[in-house]
Amino acid sequence: MNQTQLPDDARSAIAALKQADIVIGIPSYNNARTIGHVVRAAHAGLNKYFPGSLGVIINSDGGSKDDTRREVLQAQFDDPHLLLLSTPLSAVHRLSFPYHGIPGKGSAFRMIFQIAHDLGAKACAVVDSDLRSITPEWIDLLIRPVLHAGYDFVAPYYHRHKYDGTITNSIIYPLTRALYGKRIRQPIGGDFGMSGPLLSTYLARDDWETDVARYGIDIWMTTIAVAERFKVCQSFLGAKLHDAKDPGADLSAMLQQVVGSVFGLMQHYHSVWQSVSASENVELFGFRYDVGLDPIAVDLDRLVHAFLRGREDLLEIWSLALAPGTLHAVCALADSARSAPSLSFHLDDELWASLIFEFAVTFARQPSSRPHLIRSLTPLYLARVASFVNETRDMSAPQVETRIESLCLTFENLKPLLIAHWNGHPGSPPVSPVSPQPAKGHALEV
After folding, report:
1. What is the pLDDT at residue 291?
2. Taking the model in full, what pTM does it have?
3. Fewer CB within 10 Å of terminal CB in the chain, N or C?
4. Are 211 and 103 in contact (CB under 8 A)?
5. For the chain, which domains are there?
6. Which of 109, 102, 35 is nearest to 67 (CA)?
7. pLDDT tens digits, 296-341
8. How many whole angstroms separate alpha carbon 152 and alpha carbon 143?
């Protein structure tokens, strides 16, 4: 097992505690405004639903400059009657440590997983530190399937605003569902439950120094759980209300790290996903209900203009990543967009799926060109988001889900094309190396 370096105070805490049944991990960076609520919800969930178990809440902090760690350790319950339904039999310990290594969410998780493993935890859950909608029930729904139903991995299932989670809706859910055959609706949702054996599998991996240390961690966790044939399920958590952003504002780093992780895992598990021909539902725990959601404003013109700048600055890289027919369709879309209003912009499902598949193939064949290749995907992703906004502007939440389901089926139906390209059959994308010269930066300032 690849041991991660733990701070001295974390090792001392492990020695003092000796063991724990359940670990709840909360990664953070400058989340003083919200993390107190998250800690209180986790604490209440452990006491209410697992009163006979020894629980530990671990805050893995990335060097916050605000009062995040103080808020964790000093969080108090506002309602003294909150826990009367279930008198706690074991104390809940709250710990806060700075992690070491590459700055990012994945490095925070690695420390949490290591501590949970060293304490012999039977189950571990991780939750985001900016959540405003977390309740004590989330802890039950993330942990109980592991402790009492034999599952190894619990993915979140929640309602989100139709313009929240655009990376998930446009790329990650359709692609991973088509690849591995499991309909895990929120594969990068941020809030997960895991078994001890799965934690050991994660810690034994040797790719922690990649984008896995950053935003790539969620899809890495989900993909390994599915590809290694651990028992997976989902739990309905209600609404996800957090610090959501305009999808065109500042998601480029996240996009690059998440997609880069997906493409890298495709190489590692190519024999797994090439044998999968369809998708199936994944068991869902929890009672589903409708919820209110915070609106998200989207700057449609900005999305389209970023795509058009990409057409001017990144054509050389796109031409090396895409088949001639796909590239021609992308250029034709850009040409028509210059003279048409943003409200009419449309990128169809077949073109989008082909584009993603061809980028994945080129990523696998050209290791030295991957950074430029992944960065060049950002304007194309923004084009897809613009198209999605136009299509779904007047749709209800169920109608939007139907629309996303249609996109997923397109990815599944075109998967034989991906396999043919991947295996070098006629019609594969070109494989000339991408120029080492960096693309003009302003094309990626989204």
Report:
1. 67
2. 0.90
3. N
4. no
5. 8-285 (3.90.550.10), 300-444 (no CATH)
6. 35
7. 888 999 999 999 999 999 999 999 999 999 999 999 999 999 999 8
8. 10
| Greatest extent of the chain over all pairs of C-alpha atoms, in Å | 69
